[in-house]
Design brief:
It comes from Qipengyuania profundimaris. This is Sulfotransferase. It contains 23 helices and four strands. It is mainly alpha-helical and about 425 residues long. The chain has one domain: Rossmann fold (3-Layer(aba) Sandwich). α13 packs across α15. The longest helix has 27 residues. It is globular, with a radius of gyration of 22 Å. About 40% of the residues are buried.
Length: about 425
Amino acid sequence: MQRQPIEPPRRTRFIDIADKVVRAGRKIGAVAPARLEKDFLLEQAAEKTGLDDFGDPWFEKPFEVLLDSVKREARLNAAGDFSAMQQFQYVLESRLYAQMWFKQHLEILARPIRNPVVIVGPMRSGTTRLHRLLASDKRFAHMRSFETISPVPRPGFEDVLAGEKEDFRPKLAARIMKVARLANPRTLSIHPTGPYEPEEELGLLVASMWGMKHDAQWQVPSYSAWCAQESAVPAYRYMADLLRLIGWSQQESSLRPWILKTPQHMLDLPALLEVFPDARLIFTHRDPKQVVGSAASLAWNQTIIYSDHVDPDRMGQTWLDKTAEMIARMRAARDAIPPERMIDVHYDDMETDWRGTMERVYRFLEFDIEPALEPMQGFLDRSAKLKRHPHRYSLEEFGLSEGQVRERFADYVSTYGVATDREASETRRRMWK
């Protein structure tokens, strides 16, 4: 009997309906056609805000490349290009408002960012769990989900700081998350979150039209290839300025080290270390077959929202190659990092003994773990409620095999002792004690 091929899940009817509504609206003139043109989008943002300073113009080059790639390669449906327009307009408006705040409050850019703790690992390698465990410790500063969606406060935020008005951004984030779950309810199991949950700084790199968020959202291979040849230093400098703005908006002490993480750092370690020269690095590792399968599933579930033409086999190959590129660039960059500035954490060790693993991390950071244990346990209890269903995926649904992945990453697995069996985990813990 011939075995039926394993197929990844299709998108929800919500997107099909939204796509039809946008198409119908355009036919009758109720919805404007998408204009993915740089000059038009810049003009629209300036007209809406009444501002004209976008900051460092470096971002315009990746923006041009991204727009070109979206138009030529992404094959967006009507809902997809409508969403892209909204996303670009919001990012551009935020850049204008950021410059406004920098000019009005000179103390923002004077805020130091000392000794940040940066979690560096491929997508789906346990970076979110580690990030949120550390963020539960009030001795560290962290971003919240609504701040990566809307990092820049709007005019009148002084009234929020004075307690006279409510910040609109958490409510906006809640609405966006509700729509995202309607578009694809699997997002809740893939990446459980809420407006106030600790979140990564990927949105701060998107502010420079930079980063893997675009790869995981749209099919933009030429944009990805262009970024691989460019220095990310300007994007990271702007990210640092936005972190300063967020710290100011939180009224956060600049003495507290930031906890940062996003898989993009795997590709851009030299830029990260140039901008944050005193960063302490926590590298996460997980069996590549889980990383590749989970990353392909995450990207698939996002990309099918915006395009009617997504091939699962191509998606699998893309994230197999992307994961290999991330690991190769990470390995090359960390050769120049002093050993005392970095530590390795394995996903399976966190699964079997999270407390023992976190004790290692805290020794590395030279922090006493005792005050953090209760809030970390609180996070784990809350996380179990957020994640209602496990994230289910397989290599086969994306045209890959376990043998293919194991062969591709054999040297990485051997070099860093990456394993999935309990015996290997126990061996590592005995070595580290």
